[in-house]
Write a structure and sequence with these properties.
155 residues; Aminopeptidase; four-stranded antiparallel β-sheet; 28% strand; globular
């Protein structure tokens, strides 16, 4: 399979966020409390300010595209904090998440950001550990979500 990693355009933002919602609902939401999907939607998918930050290019978003289909997304909320990383289930274990993470790490490094942080779901921890992220605190509840704070320092 041939896929391309590129910065999202304004037209890509909503389809990419819809992919994130589908993947979240399928792979992560079953482990969370009732209400997690609604909270995810209100915080990100239906949040006009959040969306505009990516449409305007104020915040970084990269997508993986197979032909014309968006199959993966990674974005950051500012100051090197990863907001979300999702890959369509049909494309898992094909190197897409790694390629997306490498790209955003590279772009953040160009901006002078060497320390990248995120709040991982329990589902994402194995990927982030393999990439080189380290846990910086205990697993905790945040709203409807169980999160593990992690960070990565690029060389």
């Amino acid at each position: 399979m041939k896929y391309k990693i590129r910065q999202a355009t304004a037209d890509d933002v909503l389809p990419a966020l819809n992919l994130a919602l589908r993947v979240f609902t399928e792979f992560e939401a079953p482990a969370y409390e009732h209400g997690a999907v609604a909270k995810f939607k209100s915080d990100c998918i239906e949040n006009d300010e959040y969306i505009e930050n990516y449409k305007s290019g104020k915040r970084l978003m990269f997508i993986a595209v197979d032909d014309e289909k968006i199959v993966g997304i990674v974005n950051e909320r500012g100051n090197g904090r990863i907001s979300m990383m999702f890959v369509n289930g049909e494309y898992h274990r094909q190197g897409i998440a790694t390629a997306l993470m490498k790209r955003i790490v590279y772009e953040l490094k160009l901006q002078g950001i060497d320390k990248i942080t995120l709040q991982s779901s329990t589902y994402g921890v194995p990927f982030y550990n393999a990439f080189g992220f380290k846990s910086t605190g205990a697993e905790r509840q945040a709203d409807f979500f169980t999160v593990i704070p992690m960070e990565y320092t690029s060389n």
